[in-house]
């Protein structure tokens, strides 16, 4: 019988498998996808948010625990378990030497991402390179890996894991780690969670999935039926406003449009609906997907002028370009009169001081609702550009309640041999909102804990 069974194939699963193997356990990892799509959403990641009290290789200055905690508390609106959040934060300061040992390489922040050079360590080659490095290391260490192996049921007796089922095959293990992702690719479940709005729309029908098509939430649903303790709101997720032309699945990082804070966002009625300059983009970018989801038709339009070009990461698809704002409205098929009324009011309300997109500057609007708090400059220099944006879900926050040992809970009691990591428990730390790189911090911290605890439960 295998010592530790790991279900999932992304960052958290791989961290668990590596830690369990290092502890001396025999390990089998089951990945639902084919080999070429392995790695889940981790293949689309770029960086890890890291606490550090002084400069460290690719990380500049310092990013102490308290600042990381306050950033997390702010974006979640306090919907976070402080104990588990601080555990994640502290773990983020010590994991990189271990990651390097398993082949992960880091690089300095690139142009367009310099405002996270202090807080985030970037992976050389991105998430795909990280995933490949971990798989190489796992196989070198003797971890067994099986692809095209979706687990559809677990045998659990009195809170103890007994076996997993892949179709008609039954796989026993002394301990198990669940790290199989959220339910973002399950359209039926998204529809059920979001329901129908007052306009008679089903918002979830217009959502794009930034990540893997294989995250169907099968095990979250199954664990609910098994009586596991659940945490999180099914409508909360890492949801980004992405290019409306993005593919339905696996668009990843390149579908993001990072120009929102440099211009204005309007809905299909040509009206602004939120403060584009509320805070730095890495802290607020994942708010905009949900904001767009609440707009008519689940679509929004980012409007910038030539002054913004070169100040954000260039998107894959070029924006719609026009020599005048009325022409841009027509090209985007927005109501011209309402659009111009919005832009004229915004331009007149701008109070431009010293523009600096790297700090919370003093450029703001006056007498305008909603306000634009920072980086407010008139949109008046052609050519003008517009991007149609839709909600892009990366991962959902509904998952399994856990503790500092990554144990799954049943009726408040921690399982002795069933553990959880990654997206399947992220809702313990992320009740809502997001800040760049924290998903990898959670997955790495709890993947490593879960692997160690599973090996211990298996007698190592």
UniProtKB/TrEMBL annotation:
Sequence intervals crossing the membrane: none
Swiss-Prot/TrEMBL keywords: FAD, Flavoprotein, Oxidoreductase
MF annotations from Gene Ontology: oxidoreductase activity
Pfam families attached to this UniProt entry: FAD_binding_2
Record Gene3D superfamilies: FAD/NAD(P)-binding domain, Succinate dehydrogenase/fumarate reductase flavoprotein, catalytic domain
Stretches assigned to the FAD-dependent oxidoreductase 2 FAD-binding domain: 3-429
Record keyword Flavoprotein present: yes
Top-level division of the source organism's lineage: Bacteria
Cofactors that this protein relies on: FAD
NCBIfam families referenced in this protein's UniProt entry, alphabetically: CobZ_N-term, PRK08274.1
Protein's recorded name: FAD-dependent tricarballylate dehydrogenase TcuA
Natural source organism: Ramlibacter agri
């Amino acid at each position: 019988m295998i010592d530790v069974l790991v279900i999932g194939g992304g960052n958290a699963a791989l961290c668990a498998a590596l830690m369990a193997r290092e502890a001396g356990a025999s390990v089998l990892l089951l990945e639902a996808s084919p080999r070429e799509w392995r790695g889940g959403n981790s293949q689309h990641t770029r960086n890890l948010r890291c606490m550090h009290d002084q400069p460290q290789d690719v990380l500049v200055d310092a990013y102490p625990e308290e600042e990381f905690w306050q950033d997390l508390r702010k974006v979640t609106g306090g919907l976070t378990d402080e104990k588990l959040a601080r555990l994640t934060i502290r773990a983020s300061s010590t994991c990189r030497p271990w990651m390097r040992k398993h082949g992960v390489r880091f690089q300095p922040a690139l142009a367009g991402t310099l405002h996270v050079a202090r807080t985030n360590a970037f992976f050389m080659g991105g998430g795909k390179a990280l995933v490949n490095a971990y798989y190489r290391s796992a196989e070198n260490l003797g971890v067994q890996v099986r692809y095209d192996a979706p687990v559809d049921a677990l045998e659990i007796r009195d809170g103890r894991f007994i076996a997993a089922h892949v179709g008609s095959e039954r796989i026993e293990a002394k301990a198990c780690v669940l790290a199989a992702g959220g339910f973002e690719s399950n359209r039926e479940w998204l529809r059920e969670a979001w329901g129908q709005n007052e306009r008679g729309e089903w918002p979830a029908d217009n959502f794009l999935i930034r990540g893997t098509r294989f995250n169907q939430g099968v095990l979250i649903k199954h664990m609910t039926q098994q009586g596991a303790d659940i945490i999180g709101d099914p409508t909360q997720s890492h949801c980004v406003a992405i290019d409306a032309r993005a593919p339905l699945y696996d668009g990843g990082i390149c579908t993001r449009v990072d120009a929102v804070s440099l211009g204005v966002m309007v809905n299909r009625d040509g009206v602004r609906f939120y403060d584009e300059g509320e805070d730095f983009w890495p802290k607020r970018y994942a708010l905009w997907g949900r904001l767009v989801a609440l707009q008519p038709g689940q679509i929004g339009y980012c409007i910038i002028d030539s002054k913004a070009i070169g100040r954000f990461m260039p998107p894959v698809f070029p924006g719609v370009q026009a020599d005048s704002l009325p022409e841009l409205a027509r090209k985007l098929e927005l109501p011209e009169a309402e659009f111009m009324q919005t832009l004229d009011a915004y331009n007149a309300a701008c109070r431009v001081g010293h523009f600096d997109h790297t700090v919370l500057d003093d450029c703001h609007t006056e007498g305008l609702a909603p306000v634009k708090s920072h980086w407010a400059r008139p949109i008046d220099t052609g050519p003008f550009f517009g991007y149609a944006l839709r909600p892009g879900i990366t991962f959902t926050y509904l998952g399994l309640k856990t503790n500092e040992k990554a144990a799954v809970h049943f009726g408040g009691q921690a399982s002795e041999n069933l553990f959880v990591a990654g997206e399947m428990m992220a809702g313990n730390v992320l009740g809502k909102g997001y800040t760049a790189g924290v998903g990898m911090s959670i997955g790495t911290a709890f993947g490593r804990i879960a692997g160690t605890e599973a090996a211990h439960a298996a007698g190592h």
